[in-house]
Every structure is written in structure tokens, then in C-alpha cells.
Design brief:
Number of strands: 13
Shape: elongated
CATH topology of the largest domain: Glucose Permease (Domain IIA)
CATH architecture of the largest domain: Distorted Sandwich
CATH superfamily of the largest domain: Glucose Permease (Domain IIA)
Radius of gyration: 45 Å
Order of helices and strands: HHEHHHEEHHEEEEEEEEEE
Number of domains: 2
Helix content: 25-40%
Structural class: alpha+beta
Number of helices: 7
CATH class of the largest domain: Mainly Beta
Length: about 375
């Protein structure tokens, strides 16, 4: 009887805890499955590593130091270094090409020279026929010969020698001989007459235009016929004063073309439009108010221009005017309107040519007006 009761209790226990037993069994099965899968995956990874070929001793792996940061500063520094190296390589190649340049409206000798990294005189040296040493002779459509470096191009003549030509143009014979563009035989430099040779660093005497430009004091000029020419009567006394006023209204103080350089350009070319008001740069007396061709047969190219005697040996010149508003012997005062800017005479575009003279010679206008 007691054995029966014990068996019944055990059956009842199984019945009550059957659900718990099933849950534990399922959990144990999942754990075992996961453990088996992990072991299997580990074995596959080991086999793959073992099968990968080892690098042989004959293969060298490049070691490249890369930036630890990819910031903009790091990338920019690296790129600039490569660009500078590229430009340096290019600049080592000597330019030996002679260029034919066609002048366009608004060109100036100074701007063209700057474009080709040479001096304005270099262009004058090699274009005597067209320019006659006068930068104001530049005209749209004109063809200019542009040397590759500072110096001059020379057509070889019968009887010339390297030393003779070098001495004539204040250059070095070795520079002529070794210039790559001349293609000379260093051991036996025979040059056929008519051959154009580059003379690096060469120079020749330019025409000094100051000898052709009239500077007339108030005691020797005349009045009489207004703005067309200069008469014969002498001017009387008048005001004097320092040159200090910028000579044109309505524009910033900048150039449109040539700067001051003696003897090729005796003043500065100031940015202006046709009709801008031109004013006297200082007190004085008008001694010339005329078209340049009526004053001097050589005609430097001033067109309509005005010269004012400012006293104390100083004079100022205003050229290429579209209109003249004063007469010879007329007194004027600093800042007073005297005419209008324009493009008369030898010009490629409108501007005001302004000069300061002292004792018959030209001075740098930048030393007086700013």
C-alpha cells in the first residue's frame, strides 16, 4: 500500500513538472548547437589562414609614409609641394623664340613689355623702323618683334666679328656665342651676313626726345592766335606756385600705359576717358596751348597739348587733349580746369600724358603729385 502511494506521488510530480523539464531540455539543446557552430567556424578560419601563401624573400613591400591626418592643411601642403616642383622644372627651359606681336587698341609699350617679362627698351631696340625710339608711335595693327630676353636682335653685316658686335652693343661676346637660339658652332662660329642674331643684354643709344620738346618760359613765348599756334608777343608776369595737384578729375591715381623713363618716355600716362576734366597742377602762366604739329616738325606725338610755366624754373605739360580751354599767356591756378582729356596725337587709347620739367629737363612726376 505504501509502495503504491510512493509511485503515485512520483507520477503526480512528473505530471506537475513536465513543462519545466521540456523547457530545460530545449535550452540545453540550443546551447549545445551554438557551441558546436562556434567550434566549426574557428576551424574554418584556421584552415584559411594556413592555406594563404607567405610572401617570399624576393618580393619587397614598399614602405610609404602617409599623412596621419587627412585635414585640409595636410592635403594642401602636399599638393603645393608638387606644383612648385613642376613650375621649377618648366622655368629651367630657356625661351629662345622671337615673337611677332600685333598691337591692339589700348596697348602700351610698357604693358606689352610686362606681358613678355622684358624691359620696354628691349622692344624699342629691335623695332627701330616702326617706332623710331618713340613709344608714342605705337599704333593698332602694327607688328612688333619681341625678343625672348632683354637685349636686342641684330642683323649680321659683312666684316662683323663677335667681339666687334659685342663692343658696339655693350654686351659680352661669350653671351652671344653661347645663346642657344643663335645655334652657333662653339668651336668655329661662322655667321653668314644677313643672319639675325640675338645679343643678350645688348643695348644701343636711343633718341633723346627731350631735345625736340619745346620748353618755353613765360618771358619768351607769345600770345595772339589762341589754341592753334604760338604767336610772337611775350607774356607778362603771372602767378607761380608749387606743382602738387593731381592733374585730372574723376579717376583714381593710376596709370593707363607708360610710366616715367628717360629718354623714352618723359612723363606718366594717367587713366582717363575722352572728355574728363584736366586741371592745372600748380599756379602759373600758359606758355603753349596748341597742336604739337604746329610747334615742331619732328612731332613727338602730343596732339593737342598745354604747357604751363609754374615759376621757379618749373613747367608742366598736359598732352593728347580732346579740347583746350585756355590760351597762351593766360594765368591759371592750381586745380583750375584747363582742358579735356582725349586721344589726339600718337596714342592707342584715351589718356592724359603729364610731364613735370625743371630747367629744360624732365623730372619724375611721381615726386610732385600723388
Amino acid at each position: 500500500m505504501e509502495q503504491k502511494n510512493t509511485f503515485g506521488k512520483f507520477a503526480e510530480f512528473l505530471k506537475i513538472n513536465r513543462f519545466n523539464l521540456i523547457s530545460w531540455g530545449v535550452t540545453a539543446f540550443i546551447v549545445a548547437a551554438l557551441a558546436g557552430f562556434g567550434f566549426w567556424w574557428t576551424q574554418i578560419g584556421s584552415a584559411a589562414s594556413a592555406s594563404a601563401p607567405e610572401p617570399t624573400a624576393s618580393v619587397s613591400q614598399p614602405s610609404v609614409a602617409l599623412p596621419t591626418s587627412t585635414t585640409n592643411a595636410t592635403i594642401s601642403s602636399f599638393s603645393i609641394g608638387r606644383q612648385l616642383e613642376l613650375k621649377t622644372n618648366i622655368s629651367q627651359r630657356t625661351n629662345t623664340s622671337v615673337i611677332q606681336y600685333q598691337v591692339v587698341n589700348g596697348d602700351s609699350l610698357f604693358a606689352i613689355a610686362k606681358q613678355y617679362n622684358i624691359k620696354p627698351e628691349t622692344i624699342l631696340y629691335s623695332n627701330k623702323t616702326n617706332l623710331n625710339d618713340n613709344p608714342e608711335n605705337l599704333k593698332p595693327g602694327m607688328m612688333l618683334t619681341i625678343p625672348p630676353v632683354d637685349g636686342l636682335l641684330y642683323t649680321w653685316q659683312q666684316g662683323d666679328t663677335l667681339q666687334k658686335v659685342a663692343d658696339e652693343f655693350k654686351a659680352k661676346a661669350d653671351d652671344i656665342l653661347n645663346w642657344p637660339g643663335n645655334n652657333l658652332d662653339l668651336t668655329d662660329p661662322q655667321i653668314t651676313p644677313g643672319t639675325v642674331i640675338m645679343i643678350p643684354g645688348g643695348q644701343r643709344q636711343l633718341i633723346d626726345w627731350t631735345q625736340f620738346i619745346p620748353t618755353i618760359s613765360r618771358g619768351t613765348t607769345g600770345a595772339g592766335t589762341g589754341t592753334s599756334n604760338v604767336g610772337t608777343a611775350q607774356c607778362g608776369a603771372g602767378p607761380s606756385g608749387p606743382v602738387s595737384v593731381w592733374p585730372i578729375l574723376g579717376e583714381p591715381h593710376i596709370l593707363s600705359g607708360y610710366d616715367y623713363i628717360v629718354p623714352t618716355h618723359l612723363g606718366i600716362d594717367i587713366l582717363a576717358h575722352v572728355g574728363d576734366t584736366v586741371v592745372a597742377a600748380g599756379n602759373g602762366v600758359v606758355v603753349i596751348a596748341a597742336y604739337m604739329g604746329t610747334i615742331n616738325a619732328d612731332n613727338y606725338g602730343y596732339g593737342n597739348f598745354i604747357e604751363i610755366d609754374n615759376g621757379g624754373g618749373y613747367a608742366t605739360v598736359y598732352a593728347h587733349l580732346s579740347a583746350i580751354g585756355v590760351k597762351a599767356c593766360q594765368p591759371v591756378y592750381a586745380g583750375q580746369a584747363i582742358g579735356a582729356s582725349g586721344a589726339t596725337g600718337n596714342v592707342t587709347g584715351p589718356h592724359l600724358h603729364f610731364e613735370v620739367r625743371y630747367g629744360g629737363g624732365n623730372q619724375n612726376p611721381w615726386n610732385f603729385v600723388h
